[in-house]
Amino acid sequence: MTSFYDFTANTIDGTPLSMEEFRGKTVIVTNTATRCPLVFQLRGFERLWRDYADRGVVVLGFPCNQFLHEEPGSNAQVESVCQDRYGITFPLFAKVEVNGPFAHPLWQWMQHEKPGRASSAIRWNYTKFLISRDGRVLSRFAPTTAPERLRRAIDAALWA
User: Fold this and answer.
1) Candidate list 28, 36, 48, 130, residue with the active-site label
2) Would you say the pTM of this structure is higher than 0.85?
3) Judging by beta carbons within 10 Å of its beta carbon (0-12, 13-18, 19+), is residue 8 exposed, middle or buried?
4) pLDDT of residue 1
């Protein structure tokens, strides 16, 4: 697989969705967890989604329970918390693993395309990847990078 568009993932309600649906858009992909201290970033992602949606930017959230079990609930519980507490309207996917032998293939590919500084493994919740309109991984951002700090990179991707 050589492009973001080659992958499929289940939405939070279990429906398979091809990333082909996002062809031609700039995509931000992040692993989320509602019991993580960085959960406040959900509001920042929602702002990006609302501010850039009309310019072809999509935010995709992938809940993950691999880091200190900070996302233990069911997909329905995750969706409820994200919508009710944080006002999330951007697309959420079913819980995935992002590291190890059972990591979702999309996450394996993104890590291969943009390894981290010390290794390719995802270090924590809220690791972010910026995908170009042609399906390439442009950038990888650390968990502690606030969504607002992605604006410059998003703007550059939109002009590319």
Assistant:
1) 36
2) yes
3) middle
4) 56
